[in-house]
Design brief:
The chain is of the alpha+beta class. Among the domains are: 1-197, Serine Threonine Protein Phosphatase 5, Tetratricopeptide repeat (Alpha Horseshoe); 419-515; 518-648, Histidine kinase-like ATPase, C-terminal domain (Heat Shock Protein 90, 2-Layer Sandwich), CATH 3.30.565. 76% of the residues lie in helices and 7% in strands. The chain contains 22 helices and seven strands. The protein is extended, with a radius of gyration of 42 Å. The two termini are 62 Å apart.
């Protein structure tokens, strides 16, 4: 017997209140008073509410009020209300482990809802069938109804229903030992209910995941998820349901050979399940605890629990349980040298084992008979087809010439089509050759242009660059030898030297852009850092920051890269010259296929509507428009200026 017998099955259509027992009884009392003066329809709704609240604290009372609701719906003669009452009765019988009655209730509810064409109500009934057949072990029917339920909920976009269907499908896969698939659907369900903030369903799913983790041998993870489930149930004041995660924890500790914690949790779960009278779970828990005691050679305790397990298994005629528990009882009695009793339970074990095997054989025989009948029917159908074919052949012979003529025309058409396709293929191949030649010519032109750019950049560097350097050197020498000249002339010479130096830097930037087909963001970042370092030297009072949150491998065209660099250079210059700033931030980023750069200062700012923009800002806008981008200027007096540029990348 395995740990996968444990799961808190979700009753998605049973409305549950998160209230204390005191509050629940208070609500029940108030509802009982209200229904005395209400209309029949309102009275029906409140009877179902009372039944639902009682479902957590007293199943007999819950069933009593559900029956009262059904009787009232019969008096009202309202099919919709009758279907709702039958559905509620089905769930009450399910909770009482009366599965045959539950199925009858669901069948009657389905018949009414199909007649009413109520999709939501049909889905609710399918859900009832699914969880009941799952509990009975008929997984084929359970899976069938679960996917029927899911299909309807998806059509009507019912998130709660979709989450519940995922949950139940996950449980069926767990029973089939498809544990990874089980986890997949449980996590799908968990995602839905986390969005809905449905704490009850989150608790149930965590319990399911914990049980599946036990099946996979991931016991520590199982304990983690089971404790999450237990915590949610306690917060919701559903102490009765904590029995399920506690059972999972007990199995996990048992598997980890932590006997003390395993025993503690088994006993706690047995106590809770005894209060709610659930023989299925009690049979398993007592069996598991008996096994634990037997492994520890605590045979007296093992015997007490094994007897209890056997009693519960007999109550619900759980043949697998009876078989396994009988084997355990036989072993315990053997250890106690009570041979007669040991043999008695050994015989019971053999009897049920043979019974289960015979059932399996009968099932196999039934399947073989079904296959035989199917084959027989197929043969009969084949014989009928032969007779029909013979008659068809007579008709075909009469029309043979017509068929031959049609065939000839068809062949001619196929040949013509073949020639057409052949010519079409030739045209396509010719077009491909033309496209290839055009592509090669384009590549050749690009290579030629690249060589020309490289040659021009070398000439600029070797000729103009060296000449400008010579001019700077000459001016510096002239300043040195002209000691007696006026300060005004010296200032002019310094300005010319500085201007020439700036020209060299701009020339180098131009050569840098010309030498590349593309400019990476990393190259642009390096250039900006280099420029900022020079600015720091010139203006040490200003704090510069370059923020770089973009993939360095992103590329821009050399033209776009150069224009962006010039615009940022101009923006930084303007901030240094006019803003009276103490801080300048340069940011590079990307958002939704857009390259974004900004220069932000904390200077004096200006009123955009009142200040006439100079050539510098106009040039910035022109440069960005050339690369399909734009410049956005945001400035507030005494709060600084933000110049942002954007372009596609």
């Amino acid at each position: 017997m395995k740990a996968n017998k444990f799961l808190l099955v979700s009753y998605i259509f049973i409305f549950l209140f998160n209230l204390s027992s005191y509050s629940q009884n208070k609500i029940i009392d108030s509802l009982k008073l209200v229904i005395k003066t209400q209309s029949k329809e309102e009275k029906f709704k409140n009877l179902l509410k009372i039944s639902t609240i009682y479902s957590r604290i007293n199943l007999d009372s819950s069933k009593f009020y559900t029956n009262k609701a059904f009787q009232l719906s019969d008096k009202i003669n309202n099919d919709s209300l009758k279907a709702k009452a039958l559905l509620a009765l089905g769930f009450r019988n399910f909770e009482s482990s009366n599965y045959s009655e539950a199925i009858k209730n669901f069948e009657n509810a389905l018949s009414i809802n199909v007649h009413l064409k109520d999709s939501t109500a049909i889905a609710n009934v399918y859900n009832g069938f699914a969880i009941t057949y799952s509990k009975k072990g008929d997984l084929n029917k359970s899976i069938e109804y679960n996917f029927k339920t899911l299909s309807i909920y998806e059509k009507i976009k019912d998130s709660l229903g979709i989450g519940n269907s995922y949950l139940n499908i996950g449980w069926d896969y767990r029973k089939l030992k498809e544990f990874e698939k089980s986890l997949k659907y449980n996590f799908k369900s968990l995602k839905v209910y986390q969005k809905l903030k449905d704490s009850l369903r989150i608790a149930m799913i965590n319990n399911n995941i914990a049980g599946t983790k036990n099946e996979l041998g991931q016991y520590k993870s199982a304990i983690l998820y089971a404790n999450k489930s237990k915590s949610y149930f306690l917060k919701l004041n559903f102490k009765r349901y904590t029995a399920y995660p506690i059972s999972v924890i007990a199995v996990a500790y048992d598997s980890l050979q932590n006997n003390i914690l395993a025993e503690k949790n088994y006993l706690e779960s047995i106590k809770l399940h005894t209060e709610s009278r659930e023989p299925f779970e009690l049979s398993f828990l007592n069996y598991s605890l008996s096994n634990l005691y037997f492994k520890q050679k605590k045979n007296k305790k093992a015997l007490i629990k094994a007897k209890a397990a056997f009693s519960f298994a007999k109550e619900i005629n759980a043949k697998e349980y009876i078989k396994d528990i009988s084997a355990l009882l036989s072993n315990i009695y053997e250890k106690q040298n009570r041979t007669k009793l040991s043999n008695k339970y050994l015989k019971i074990y053999l009897k049920y084992n043979d019974s289960i095997l015979n059932e399996s054989k009968l099932k196999s025989i039934a399947e073989i008979e079904a296959k035989y009948e199917t084959t027989k029917k197929e043969k009969e159908i084949a014989q009928q087809k032969e007779l029909l074919l013979a008659k068809e052949l007579e008709i075909k012979n009469r029309n043979l010439y017509a068929v031959l003529l049609a065939s000839a025309l068809l062949i001619l058409g196929i040949i013509s089509f073949g020639f057409y396709k052949k010519n079409q293929l030739k045209r396509k191949q010719l077009q491909k050759e033309i496209d290839l030649k055009d592509a090669l010519a384009t590549i050749k032109n690009q290579n030629s242009l690249q060589e020309q750019r490289l040659r021009i950049s070398r000439d600029l560097h070797d000729n103009i660059g060296s000449q400008l350097t010579f001019i700077i050197s000459s001016i510096d020498n002239l300043k040195f030898i002209s000691k007696d000249v006026s300060d005004k002339l010296k200032e002019k010479l310094s300005n010319i030297s500085s201007f020439t130096g700036d020209t060299i830097h701009q020339l180098r930037d131009t050569i840098w852009a010309m030498n590349k087909n593309e400019v990476s963001i990393e190259d642009l970042h390096t250039r900006i850092l280099s420029y900022v370092e020079k600015a720091k030297t010139a203006k040490p009072s200003i704090n510069f920051k370059v923020n770089y949150t973009i993939d360095k491998n992103l590329n821009l065209t050399s033209f776009a890269g150069m224009n962006i660099f010039r615009v940022l250079q101009e923006a930084i210059n303007n901030a240094i010259k006019y803003a009276n700033a103490t801080s300048i931030d340069i940011n590079l980023s990307k958002k939704d296929n857009q390259f974004i750069a900004s220069v932000i200062d904390n200077g004096i700012g200006f009123n955009i509507t009142e200040v006439e923009l100079g050539n510098g800002l106009s040039n910035m806008e022109k440069r960005m428009s050339e690369v399909g981008g734009k410049v956005i200027i945001d400035s507030k007096i005494y709060k600084g200026t933000n110049i942002k540029i954007t372009t596609s990348c």
